Amino acid sequence: MVRMRLQFYALLVGTFVMLLTQSCIMGQSRWEILQGNLAFSRGDYHQATLHYLDALKDSTEHQDWIRYNLGNVYHSLGETEASSRMWKKTETSQDQELLFAVLFNQGVAAYEAGKYRDALAVFRRALNLNPKHHGVKVNLELTQQKIGTSRAETPSSGSTQTAPPKTEDNARVLDYVRLKEERFWLSLRKDQVDAGENDW
Please, are residues 64 and 95 in contact by the beta-carbon 8 Å criterion? Predict the structure, then answer.
């Protein structure tokens, strides 16, 4: 069984991007973020929270990344409302990588809460931001299947259906994902053929 997982890669990526774009002198807020990342990676969510909150007080330029990190910690602690609030605050960011990661995690959280229609809507938004991301495609399909299974288990006319109904909306989304995949693989094949012609 495939299991959905939160997208935590931006937790570290965001910090390193931030450090590379700044001066070599490490400020207090950046140090707190690094300490928070380290604590988070060890599963010490209490310490990670403290470091991120300190960084949030001291930093004015990386607030969205810090809130994203805090949302991840809160989600790991089972604090769904707190994580949702933090992720929601980052939705106005202009950073497309951060927006994708936030949407991905919001979709996973909605899925885990059994809010499959909400998860589906969020995964679609994430797919629009990054059509090549395999994880969001898989999660989108799993959510579609869960919606179909939920319908099949709901009694209609006194009996349960044996097969999940395939609605037009579900079929359109799956067709869209397949079309994007086909285009991607065809473009790779074309690039390989073009490169092969010039080899000799």
Answer: yes
